[in-house]
Specification:
The protein is α/β, with parallel strands linked by helices. About 25% of the residues lie in helices and about 20% in strands. It has one domain (about 5-235): Nucleoside phosphorylase domain (Rossmann fold, 3-Layer(aba) Sandwich), CATH 3.40.50. The structure holds hypoxanthine (HPA). Hypoxanthine binds near residues 157 and 215. Hypoxanthine (HPA) binds near residues 157, 162 and 179.
């Protein structure tokens, strides 16, 4: 039984093992759940965009993904999310551990609490990320020597298109530091399943209208190194979450 699971979006590893395609009441997850060795510890690992990186953010079956990871034995989920940078809280190439989010997504299946069990249930979602897992990740970052910005507000947009400059200005007025497309409804679903969930945000580009040239070129420039640093943090997590 693995304690930790990773849901990853950025980068792409050719699958090196068959993994287990877990059926769920909510349909099929993005890919088989595989086991990944980091620093001598085994993690469950699921690529949220699928094995061929073919599922866009708004079409991901987030309910199936979280359910499958819990079925596979996860009680703790670290999400890796690539984001654009809005404020100077973080710079491209760095990693940020958000403490808050604002959800601008729409039309995604966003809850297990759909009334099918005859009950109306309202998730408490303050804070949206697990404080305990955030602490563990900050300590792991310290041990690994990888810089990690503590706290920030993640604006979750619908995608798959990138934002306009005016939309980014609005997100900044709302209080957002970074913008990405995948932390919701993932974080809320994890909370409904009582999984500890936190997000390591890979800051890979200045957001639209914030300079720095082509967003795609910046993603290509910064993503691989930031991802490798996220894995160094994960490898330094303590064993056993009990
Ligand atoms: N906007 C939205 N999502 C993103 C971005 C961005 O600038 N960069 C990486 N994911």
């Amino acid at each position: 039984m693995s304690d930790y699971a990773i849901i990853e979006g950025s980068g792409f590893d050719a699958p090196d093992a068959a993994g287990e395609l877990i059926g769920t009441p909510w349909g099929a997850p993005s890919a088989p759940v595989r086991r990944k060795d980091l620093g001598g510890r085994e993690f469950l690992w699921l690529p949220r965009h699928g094995d061929r990186h073919s599922i866009p953010p708004h079409a991901i079956n987030y309910r199936a993904n979280l359910h499958a990871l819990r079925e596979a034995g996860a009680n703790t989920v670290v999400a890796i999310n690539t984001v654009g940078v809005i404020t100077d809280r973080v710079a491209p190439g760095e990693i940020l551990l958000p403490h808050e989010l604002i959800d601008y997504t729409w039309g995604r299946a966003q809850s297990y609490f759909d009334g099918s069990d005859g009950e109306v249930r309202h998730l408490e979602f303050d804070p949206p990320f697990s404080s305990r897992l955030r602490e563990l990740l900050l300590e792991a970052a310290g041990r690994s020597g990888v810089g990690c910005v503590d706290g920030g507000v993640y604006a979750v947009t619908q995608g798959p298109r990138l934002e306009t400059a005016a939309e980014i200005d609005r997100l900044e007025r709302d209080g957002a530091d970074v913008v990405g497309m995948t932390a919701m409804p993932e974080a809320a679903l994890a909370a409904e399943l009582e999984l500890d969930y936190a997000s390591l945000c890979l800051a890979v580009n200045p957001a639209a209208g914030r300079g720095g040239g082509s967003i795609h070129a910046n993603v290509a420039r910064y993503q691989a190194a930031a991802r490798a640093n996220a894995f160094r943090i994960l490898a330094a997590l303590p064993g056993g979450m009990g």
